[in-house]
Predict the structure.
Amino acid sequence: MSQKNPINSKLQKWREWMEVIEPEIRLLLRDARVFWEIRIIIHGHQRTQDFHYGYLERSYLDHVIVSLRRQIKPYKGRISFVGLLHEIAENPQELSDISFDSVRSDSNDMPDSASCSDVIGARICPEMVTEDIAQLILTLEACETFVDERLAYLEKHEVKTAPAFKEFKDCLKLLDKTYVKYHALFYGDGLKTLQPPRQAGTLKGLIKIADDFDADLPEFREYM
């Protein structure tokens, strides 16, 4: 009877990092969902709209940009997703051969996210990891520019165009997608997303339909 190959110490450390990183990204995605739901609630209270919109946006921007930097701008000695990717890019063999087989021995199917474009045989492609890091950093930089412009806009400083929230949405979507890809390489369990499932009825009674359903909503024009 054959025995499973033991997981080496570096791979075990990486898996422990994944266990720390996953709930942090889940919370970040959940908070983004809550932000948009609260905006909908505020929209129903015309008298306090501007005050609450401003407070909510400033608080959300501060919170999310810090959380994104934590995962995408690694600091020495701190656990982060991009920090993990850097280690994988420098030591791709740790997810290959014996180690690769040992962490995936319980998986019968190769997930789409761990296709031949991502691995060569049982070897992780370091170029793929490096490209993933570059894409995450690029989307974070767009978010940082967005925050600078958005806060200036809220403070009535002159800006050419009022920025929208697309940069944050794109960054969160990419972070989710990239995490899921490496989760598949570690565990092979077919995880699709860390996005929280939508729950029907959470805003019941808080949304009112206008008489003219097709009327323009100027408060949301920048998000359309």
